[in-house]
Amino acid sequence: MGKSPAVELEVEDRVVRISNPDRVYFPARGETKLDLANYYLSVGDGIVRALRERPCMLHRFPEGVTGEKVHQKRLPHGAPPWVRTVRVHFPRYNRHADELCVTHIADVIWAVQMSTVEFHPWNSRAADTEKPDEWRIDLDPGPTCPFDRVRRVALVVEEVLAELGAVGFPKTSGSKGLHVYVRIKPDYGFQDVRKAALAFAHEVERRAPDDVETTWWRKDRDPSLVFVDYNQNTRDRTIASAYSVRGVAEATVSTPIRWDEIPDVDPREFTIATVPKRYAELGDLHAGIDDAVWSIEPLLEWAARDELEVPDEQ
């Protein structure tokens, strides 16, 4: 069978060419490359808000999600002149990379043309890539951890955030966990944000010791518990953004949810087939995140009180 002819999508004031639009990317469901582009158009404001002006690593699947996966830090060759980048430095190798810096939904659709399925942004922005403005709480279940346990821990997270006066914005991971994002003042570097995240994780563990652990080494963790992964705030550590499709055959989506949905939420229900209707009805549930800025200083005080130090990066 020959390749399907390319199509051109009008994306606001730009045109993006999609080659091989009928290539099946998600075999469990049958959605194609063009379906993927149309999905991102349907959640345009949301995905742009999640990625805006952040260095962004791309997970590309040139043959669909059952084929080879390419982790792309540098912007792929052939980008149109309107696609912006941000340069980041990797001290370990003393190298730089010019990463995608989304400012417009057309940037996202062009990345799809380059076979991108997942978008993994930094938690800092182009204005100062060394000062995070997003604290990420990753509830990572062990291999035998039931999802009910993840739900319970999420509600403890909500409780602690409320006591701190911080507003958390939850979402599914698109896999087996849940994430909560908090917009923070970009006053501290990655190590301080990571230390604050560790102090928070310890408090959640204190309140839910039968459900949570914060053990550093994976091999030492109880596989039935939830790891509150403070390491997701490490420099250059990224996770799938809100509204990012995941590179799995079922085309699940990392989807913003309300706190009151958590007791009954089933992440498997959120796919590129179902999220557009939900988005049309509810809008972007993370729309207020940039207006809910909080300081991590209380958490740094907890860390000092408990004499916490973050381990060296794994």
TrEMBL record:
The keyword Ion transport does not apply. Gene3D superfamilies: DNA primase, PRIM domain. GO terms for molecular function: ligase activity. Residues 32-286 form the DNA ligase D polymerase domain. InterPro entries: LigD_pol_dom (IPR014145), NHEJ_LigD (IPR052171). Keywords: Ligase. NCBIfam families: ligD_pol. PANTHER family: ATP-DEPENDENT DNA LIGASE, BIFUNCTIONAL NON-HOMOLOGOUS END JOINING PROTEIN LIGD. This is DNA ligase D.
